[in-house]
Fold each of these.
Amino acid sequence: MSNVYIGMSRKTKTVIAVVLVLLITVIVLFCLWYFYKIDEVSVTGNKHYTVSQIEDMVLTGPLEHNSLYLSLKYRNRSIEGIPFIETMDVDIVSPTAISITVYEKSIAGCVGYLDRYMYFDKDGIVVESSTARQTDIPYVAGLKFDHVVMYEKIPVEDEKIFDDILTITRLLSKYDIRTDQIHINSDKEVTLYFGKARVLMGTMENIDEKMINLKSLSEKMDGLSGTLDLESYSLDSEKKYVTFQRDDIEQHEEIVEETEGEMTEENVEDEKILDNL
């Protein structure tokens, strides 16, 4: 080999050296890409986002699919600036596997303000603003306020209302009840909305018992339009049934009159469609 170089010009030797360096570099980069390419991702702590969505947030480009690159990019720091997420930590499990730990913001509910959804935590402090509605976060209506500022408490007259909201949202989550809206009036009486059906919960008295009963009833209201009354319900109550007042009951009453009472019994069942539960 030394004899080959003897007859070469200085320029030719330089070109060969550069080509060899580039070739070695390409081989090294190929090995790093091939042997450190991520093909396994585990995600924990996520509720508002799916595993696929979290992966898309972290693995944003070709380089991010390389565990070695990620280990350097996220060394001693977390991912921030993502709605509803406080931070995300990325750990390298092996050259081809990573683990993502998600730490979500603690969100109790959201309110509407200036065509935006303002998401607040257990203390009523606004932690996120978005034009998109997160359906797994309860929408709260009925609160009175004249302005909303990011990272400040929603200025309601009685701040203790946020304790009630937190209690309600935790019970909804505990019993796996999905409601479209939580409405709280000036007397702190709660109404839950399920499509066209409304559930009168009354005050916070016996709220846990009411939620237990609602868990078995909410699915039976699917597609119905009317009002379920749980205001005075308790496990100790002598009344062992609840009534569901259909919105179209007047139409049924007219039918009963026209058929001279032939549907009276059915009409009663319509009013107590959720009884004895």
Amino acid sequence: MNRVRVNAYAKLNLTLDITGAREGYHLLDSLAVTVDLCDRILAKKKKGPLSSVAMHGMGCEAIPPEKNNALRAAEAFSARFSTDGANIAVFKNIPAGAGLGGSSADAAGVLLAMAKLYQIDDMGALFALAESLGSDVKFQLTGGLARMRGRGEEIERLPFLPQMYFLAVYGGGGVSTAECYRRFDEEGKTFPPRTERALEGFASGNPAWAARLFGNHLTAAAAGLEPAVERDLKELRALSPMGCAMTGSGSAVFAAFPTAELAQWAKSRYRGGRRAVVLCAVDPADKKSRRNPYFLGGEEGK
């Protein structure tokens, strides 16, 4: 096998609780789910341990190599497994600075692509590499629905997907993760935890009850950096969703609905001016879960 293609899926944080800090890092407790918005990664073997990454779309062409998580993943893979490198092309659909996990998805996708190229099936070693590349990368190696704790390295993959569709809204200048956490610390606010109770709702077969608990402790901090966060959350709440929240450190927000038709109706009513797209939860390992008739960002859901 000399050439492979991998889809790298975006994620939504249905809940995100900040639970403390350790060694200069924030600790979290979050329910995260992969959705059918994805970047496409093409990888081809090349001679020598050095890899190259070409970015296409979403304004990502100018990312410097030292800040490109996809390139870092390729180099870390070759160093760990003593393989040659790869010529990699990343075709972006996931926007940067939105909290949708695009950089982490690309890193995870590159690890999976190179594992296929060089026939590496040591998932334990891949998970260890993922942890070194970012807090969401380990989760996005497998995707689905999972509870993430600690710095994101403690992953409890859950054996079901939310039976709901999402209207996600994003665009504009985005939010810097570092600036969002800095502002959160400066504000010094505390919020009640949501993750445990939301998980209980899903586990008991009551997604509507779980969705009422969707929320994100970083919302106020992100809204202080990007006013569209609070404006769009207010507009989405007026559309009577099951629940809504911001994902990651922003600036994307989302509302959950029980059917694709209701999510599409909500999209038709949105007037906020940012991009709005209907998404559904997917398990990347299960093609049967990719059934969104309104997805336009790639191949899934056709």
Amino acid sequence: MEAASDNKDLIWDLDNFHQRQRAIDFVMGFENRLCVYSDSVEQLYTNYNIFFPKEEDRRLVILPNPYAHHDIFHNLPAEAVTATGLNIIPGDMVGKEGLYLLIPFKGGKTRYRAVPLQTGLRVINQKRPTDQPLLPVLKKGDLRELEAKTPCLHLHCIHLKRLTLMSTLEARGIQSVIVERLKDIN
């Protein structure tokens, strides 16, 4: 297995964050709850730790669990993972507690609607075909800062039908682990 230093997709720069500690605290709440995708090696990591090594100076490093090779999915082509436009934010941004999902609107005065995270994910999946669920993952660059003060996580989505190098069983395994991990996010 490659070291994080060999995979630049697993090293995220936090240098431009105004509220760096708040961003760190926020992202730590998602460790092993949202899977991480790496374009450069076409892998999905489902079991990992997040570190902030002193020698990496203002960088977040994702280290896959070296004892859990079975928790790494290989051969996920980049075209199978696309941006959703959805963002997870802390509830205090909208005067509430917990986590919220910012859902973009097409038109109207409001650009986004904030709904409790689990409610938003459930509603989105109810509107999608059952064979095309929303399977959110993170990629490098998805940890962002809104209005120079609030951390947020932009979500990408895996499209099962685009996993052409995988068996149906492997694709279902990816779906299962993502759905199971999402249940742990509050």
